[in-house]
Amino acid sequence: MGLLGALAAAQAVLKISFSHLPHALRRRFNRTCPLIEQLPRVKSPLRMSRDPRLGSTQAWWTNELAFTFLFFLNLLNYIDRGIIPGAAEEFSDFVAHSLGTSSPDLFVGLLQSAFIVGFSLAAIVFGHVIHYVAPFKMVGVGLVIWIIATALSGLAHHVASYYLLCIARMLSGVGEAGFQCVAPPFILDLGGDSGGRWVAVFYTAIPLGTAIGYPWGALFAGSPWTWAGGFWVASFLMLPFAVTCFLLPFTWRPERAPIEGDDVRTDGDLKIAAKKASRDKNGTDSAELHSVTRHDALLRHEQEVSVADAEAQFEARHMSLLREACVVLRRPVFLLNAFGYAANTGMMIGASTFSSKIMLDFGFFSSESSASSVFGIALSLAGLLGTPLGGVLVDRRHFHSEEAKLVFLLRQSTIFATLGCICSSLSCWIYQREVFLVFFVAGALLLFVCTASINMVTMLSVPPANRSFAIGLCTLIMHALGDVPSPIVVGAILDTLAPDCAADMKKDGKVSPECTAQVSQVRLTLFITCMWLLVAILCWGVGYVVARREYHRHHAAHRYLYLDCGSVEGEKMSRSG
Closest Cα to residue 64, out of 182, 208, 192? Predict the structure, then answer.
């Protein structure tokens, strides 16, 4: 009760207004297929359960409160991610002491890599297991793993064990993966026509959590609790979230996104429905097909969609992980979007990793701490403004189908990535600090606008049954081709083009004369990093063309069906006259 009240208060503080929340588009499963309509009905997954055994706390679980709960859970995840980079010096000292090495930076970097490896691999597994396990119970199990892992991360400081810390960080990634595979598809279904805004606000937790996580780590590192206290407090704060996940009155399944008043069917029901409907559809006489009215044609088309939906539900619950991967990877729009996401993330991470060093080489700041602080604050503000803006732009349009929405999302990503590439590229050749920051941060803001579009395309480009798995697979592709190799590549380019700047130690806040002579090469390095966005623009642009072609092909076939039925109907009327 206390947690729910706190969430309600936090919701009011954030002023997340969804007063005109429309219902999600219903799948016309029962209305258009009489055979399936006769199946037994079960209470809607997204409707608040009225089972008295749940107690009075169920009255709190409105859609808005459920979203607020998931938002703060995501926020806490990203606060945890920011602890290590926020206390980089203290973690370097810990690694040097526990391993006895004079080069601790490499091992500090491996801590982040261990988290990414655990998260990426577990995301695929969780995305597939969701077909067999209740989603929110799976999230609860993942959060229990996360709580244990963060507690072990704090314990590693007291036992002076780097290896324990490394394993704990990998387990933290595993625990978080369960939540990240369930929350986005659930929020997209819960939001309905406002799903873009909901998804965008959900991902705003990334820059906000990172902005909180950095000072969180630094604050605890400088306190008597040390950075171990930062992990322990995060672990304690996550405990009520984990318990609540086991009590949520939602039995949502990703195979279908039913809403209030819709139906859920058992595995046997789906199998019977798919076979009967498919048999009846195949047995339809061609003469009968041409004797229907326009309304009957629409119902017949929707019946075919419903049959395919029932077959997809049944198949999703019985396919192997490898087969599900093949189903998702055969979608060209999904692949193009994932590659574009990787390129976009690679540019952002590659540039931000060396941002403070590059601005010192430009002579914009006198110390690395001031450069890092200013750039971090500016980038966080860009994320806080750009991410929700992308969702608002999506929800301003009304879409009559998911195919039309997919086309719009890809076009939006292409346009804003192009504008972001132009702004960030121009900043590389600007010599005034304030103007440089304005152009670079404006480019980052435009790229953050794409966040909601990217994740919605990931989900809408695959069947509903495979959306959780698609989130996990896209995450793996993004990390493998984006933020993991990009710092290595950018560092290698910088070492090659400006070797004196790479070796220059700026502890006194001054740039060596040798590095000053190579500043133009540093600018070229940043420009090459920004050109990474061309890959994202190309992928999203091609994806837009492919999605648009599929959209027109689908609706052309639908229109021809109506015209054919209309001509038959007109001929019958003329004969009767």
Answer: 192
